[in-house]
Amino acid sequence: MSIGLNFDFRQIATSSMILFAVIDIVGSIPIIIGLRNKVGHIQSEKASIVAAIMMVAFLFVGEEILNLIGIDVNSFAVAGAFIIFFLAIEMILGIQLYKDDAPETASIVPLAFPMIAGAGTMTSLLSLRAEYHVENIIVAIVVNIIFVYLVLKSSSRIEKVLGASGIGIIRKVFGVILLAIAVKLFATNINQLF
């Protein structure tokens, strides 16, 4: 039995961009630096591996969990579009709509979850699954986890290079990209519901 792999560079690139914008690891650099100062050391490898495992697992069993509670992928994708929309608004306007508790330990909570593999990321994965081939999304996850790992490893250097204004500009640019993605996701999936 042969398994047909449908690798598509456009799907990989789009999935990577969506995950990059949703994970927003560059925008999280100030939070990462704050955590590092608070807890001393962040285990970059551990945080990256745990986040990757969570994302791939959710990509495969997320749909089954939804079916179990009677929700189809299109409905979840529309709900995901709303979450991505609000994340984008946060990034563009520089406001915080979602508040998290302060952490005691940093590598798994809140780094791997919910900062890297949070609700927005999980929703995006299922939304992407409604449109793209799984293997392309897995490649996008791997690309993003490698980037996340590199950012975690060199967060203090990146902060020195970019400065607060540089990080702010990057957040706003990705916010606009994310907003456009949310609109497209909503438009694509809303038709399937009626």
UniProtKB/TrEMBL annotation:
It is a multi-pass membrane protein. Pfam families: MarC. Keywords: Cell membrane, Membrane, Transmembrane, Transmembrane helix. GO terms for cellular component: plasma membrane. It is found in: Cell membrane. The chain crosses the membrane at residues 12-35, 47-69, 75-95, 107-128, 134-152. Its main location: membrane. Belongs to the UPF0056 (MarC) family. This is UPF0056 membrane protein. It comes from Maribacter algarum. The lineage of its organism: Bacteria, Pseudomonadati, Bacteroidota, Flavobacteriia, Flavobacteriales.
